[in-house]
Amino acid sequence: MTYILPILAVLLSFLFVYLIKPKKKEGIKLLLAFSGAFLLALTVFELLPEIYEGTDQKKVGVFIMLGILLQIFLEFFSKGAEHGHMHMDSSKTEFPWLLFISLSVHSLLEGVPIGDHHSMLYAILVHKIPIAIILSIFLIGSKIKLTSALFFITLFSIMTPLGTYLAKNIAILSSVKHELNAVAIGVFLHISTVILFESSEGHKFNLSKLLVISIGIIIAYFL
Ligand SMILES: [Zn+2]
Ligand SMILES: [Zn+2]
Predict the structure, then answer these.
(1) pLDDT at position 34 over 90
(2) Count of H-run helices and E-run strands, the chain
């Protein structure tokens, strides 16, 4: 399940966009706001308290900050695709390698905490769906060939389970799993807060957004 669900979430999102061609942006925005709140809350409730237990706490903090820095660095190449932004030129026909590589590094890291924290699987699934929908809308709407788009989305869907698998089964990686988890926390803190920040346009009061954000926090609390 840990390996199959993230793949299915991405592929079904692509299929959904291909068949339905969703026009309404508002629904995706709400889903995105919910996913940001849910991911942030689970990181705070589940991952953060545990990562500081019985280790060099300053070192943990350094790796969390490195995760935040890494995500900022990745976004120079992905233009924010990890948190639901597409600023890519859709008239280009070639395979978007930089986007692909930066998204892959991000997704591989996301797979690390899933191995030991089952509730993080849900956080990642909820986070992946709006991102995959937005990515698919871009890919299908761009001049990129459908086969390339499919290739892109299929490889992208495999990255998170691959991260889970590698962190568990490769000796060098599992020996630094604690550090990798701390880096993943930094990545989550960065993308989830950016999602929440960008979901409030001009800081206008938006009741439905406030509601989905609260629901995301409450579900994470009881999970
Ligand atoms: Zn952005
Ligand atoms: Zn992600």
Answers:
(1) yes
(2) 10, 0
